[in-house]
Amino acid sequence: MRITFDAVPLISDKITGIGWCEAGQTMALARLHPEHRYEYSFFTSGDASRIERIRPFAGKNIRINASSLSGYAYRASSSFIPVPYSYFFGGKSDITHFFNYIVPPGVKGRTVVTVHDMVYKAFPETVRGRTKLMLNMGLKKSMKRADIIVTDSEFSKSEILEYFPQHERKIRVVPCGVDLERFCPCNDNERIEQVKSSLEINGDYFLYVGTIEPRKNLERLIGAYNIFVKKAGQDSPKLVLAGGKGWLYDGIFRKVEELGLTDKVIFTKYVPSDDMNPLMCGALAFVFPSLYEGFGMPPLEAMACGVPVLTSGEASLPEVTGDCAVICDAYSVKSIAEGLYRLYSDGNLRSELSRLGHERAKKFTWERSAELLYDVYRELM
Questions:
Q1: Which terminus of the chain has a smaller tally of CB atoms within 10 A, N or C?
Q2: Residue 68 Cα to chain centre, angstroms
Q3: What domains, with CATH codes, occur in the chain?
Q4: Which of 57, 54, 58, 63 is nearest to 89 (CA)?
């Protein structure tokens, strides 16, 4: 087979979860099935650094096919004038896979699109206006153009069917994975302390990793942490929030100031990829009481590191964590606070969740994810 991967999620200077999902699946697929021909295709908009960013993902098995034209201009114009994608990429491909919701017009061969979630429908107030406009304009056409729609969880499949029931026969579930070499228990205390020092973290801490935005339920988490501190005392663990600023983040920062927690809540600077494992492994517990996730990779990564997890019972999160985490009510500040205190006060619970979570994470490998995706490709051919 000749397979083209649309690589837009991989060329950003700060890759999001969608990009890591594409990287994990495509790299494992090319490694497991080198008998096929693969390529990463993308517009550079004249930025040659994008080619350099993608080289580590491409390795020896995936060819790079770049056009110097503006990707933004193509996406904007193709909404009104159906300029065929095959003019630029995939002219000889059997399958082209788009990992970020949108399928452009005029794709040659068979087409796969990954639709990660329906947050723009379920929680439209938490989605950036530009993203919401893109999805409102393009997703319906994209799913109609696609031969198969891939999604990350059974929960996301049910969400897609709620809004687009006509596509039931097209949908296949391919869970994400976790890089068990990148996310694993770290016993190098010197390295952990080095990373903590670089981020100005002292002592014990609860850790959240993800975008700083309302959908992640961070205002309730901060309110719950305030209750926890009053119960546990001022020497209690800090709360570290590590992630880039998303949509409508001002209220989250304001909440910390209003509650007088500026010396207890730490918003980190950008955390380099190499520092993420020591940062996770140094945490007392990982906290992720999100309102909505199509999959929820951060809790899985924490479990792979052997770090006990607190998460909510919403959306796909129970599907990922199973019975290997403390589950709280995402809409109850009191429930989140009780979960924090349980993890803080019960060392035996932390040890048990560490063991159970680490074992569960082993079931979510990128190799397994890639084989499920390969089954989709074979079904198409």
A1: C
A2: 28
A3: 2-177+365-380 (3.40.50.2000), 189-361 (3.40.50.2000)
A4: 63
Residue-by-residue pLDDT tens, the chain, 381 positions: 999 999 999 998 778 889 999 999 999 999 999 999 999 999 998 888 999 999 999 999 999 999 999 988 888 788 788 889 999 998 999 999 999 999 999 999 999 999 999 999 999 988 888 889 889 989 999 999 999 999 999 999 999 999 999 999 999 999 999 999 999 999 899 999 999 999 999 999 999 998 888 889 999 999 999 999 999 998 999 999 998 777 667 889 999 999 999 999 999 977 888 999 999 999 999 999 999 999 999 999 999 999 999 999 999 999 999 999 999 999 999 999 999 999 999 999 999 999 999 999 999 999 999 999 999 999 999
Place of tokens 């993902």: 57
DSSP strand pairing (326-328 vs 309-312): parallel
CA distance 92 to 109: 8
Going across the sheet that includes 265-267, the strands are: 265-267, 238-242, 205-209, 285-288, 309-312, 326-328
> Which residues partner with 65 through β-bridges?
41
Rg (CA), the chain: 21
Provide the token pair at 89: 């990429």
Question: 179 vs 59, 107, 109, CA distance in Å?
Answer: 17, 31, 31
